């Protein structure tokens, strides 16, 4: 069962790492941030709702409060799409994913604020290694980092905050609900917040554009359908720490796909930075357990 959990979590994380391919392609085809997000969430909602109906899943046993909490958590997924995809309008996909991965230390702040659990020495060590990795991976040393539009950098950091919120709160609400039903409610929350943010795009949305639906379907599958379903199916079979460590595969997958498919260049120094960010996750998730044994 543990092997199955590891495989499912790895597939879910790797899947999310492929989102830049579809998003960048959409921008190159002339579609707006609003159009891509709206079509993505509509497609994800239709697929997950169909799966829920096929499985004859019911919300019995879920209180109205729990439903609102799950949908509320889903809004963080929608906001992550807005900020993360928005950052890719201004930045290379490889840099956007590095900024998204700041959720590693942002999550520590959330835990400190909401649960009053103070960060440990291991947590601070992880933070230091993460920031060192960011300095190298973002190419700050060469000065290239500061040549990018401030709006792109801001959106990238905001995506880290919203993704950290999703990771933190998704582990707190209706955890025993069927994964498909839970994902459907989350995507419902995402769709609502997306429609509110991009309401001005609804009147001009090219709903009969097959190319837009193809791109939206691709983004939805790798970004809003496969990851939550596979995480929900695999995470309960392994420890939370191991799940977080395995999810870091998203970072190299995103960068390699950006290199191979989007033809972005990543230097050796930047790869060292990426490895440091992954090492920081290993330190944060395994360090506490190790120090207790010593």
TrEMBL record:
Q: Which GO terms describe its cellular component?
A: membrane
Q: How does it sit in the membrane?
A: Multi-pass membrane protein
The UniProt record lists the keyword Membrane: yes
| This protein's record includes keyword Transmembrane | yes
What keywords is this UniProt entry annotated with?
A: Membrane, Transmembrane, Transmembrane helix
- All copies of domain EamA, residue ranges: 4-137, 151-283
Annotated transmembrane regions:
33-54, 66-87, 93-114, 121-142, 148-168, 180-199, 211-230, 242-262, 268-284
One Pfam family assigned to this protein is EamA
Give its localization.
Endomembrane system
| The family this protein is said to belong to | Belongs to the EamA transporter family.
Recorded protein name is Threonine/homoserine efflux transporter RhtA
Species of origin reads Halobacillus dabanensis
